[in-house]
């Protein structure tokens, strides 16, 4: 067989990543792409809205702090952000379970397609002005972040996250500490899962790289930089869904 036959067409590649026959490599690639877009969108939230929309811990702290001093407007913003993030994760979970029954093997393609649409909706944030519109944009981005985090969590069986870098970096630190301990106690029972640590390091780096890309893009283009991010996710999802429709 000639070498060039092993090279996949872009549409075929998308079908492999989000198609019926799942593989560990395809799942990791999908998680990596989602982590990249999540990092870029998170940076976009800061440049466009002044908020890191994936930082639920920060919103909880903000809610507690400003609740004490009775700054109700800031409390409302925090509640909306947390509620939108939770709603996105809940919707994603329900959508994936629904698609497993009605679109077997394409459950992640459906979720990724919805995330792409949400990012494209966020791109409309520059069209209007006003507090209510900015709140809607923040909720839209937090909802998308919740979906992205839930998708990677479902793909990895709960081992990895797309936006929760704190948890992954903590786990990397624990693993490094365990490895250091085993050097001085070779008979220790607990072993280091180097494979999982490499996966977490890859997603953390990809999230950071997406953040750099998003910071550059949103700083120059504004809300409109969400369009190529949404198109990237749709370009991955639609070929798999189209093949299912034809089949």
Protein architecture, described:
The chain is mainly α and 247 residues long. It has one domain. Helices cover 77% and strands 0% of the residues. It starts with 9 loop residues before the first helix and ends with a helix. The relative contact order is 0.19. The N terminus is likely disordered.
What's the SSE blueprint?
Blueprint: H1 10-18, H2 24-49, H3 56-68, H4 72-102, H5 107-122, H6 131-155, H7 165-184, H8 194-221, H9 226-246
Give the helices and strands as they follow along the chain: HHHHHHHHH
Number-wise, the strands total: 0
List unreliable stretches of 5+ residues.
1-16
Determine the oligomeric state from the structure.
single chain
Structural class: mainly alpha
The count of domains is 1
How much is the radius of gyration in Å? 20 Å
Identify the overall geometry. globular
Tell me the distance between the termini.
Answer: 28 Å
The total count of helices amounts to: 9
Mean pLDDT equals 81
Kindly estimate the percentage of residues that lie in beta strands according to DSSP: under 5%
Reported for the largest beta sheet, the result is: none
**Helical residue percent?**
over 70%
In short:
With 247 residues, the chain is mainly α. The protein has helices spanning 10-18, 24-49, 56-68, 72-102, 107-122, 131-155, 165-184, 194-221, 226-246.
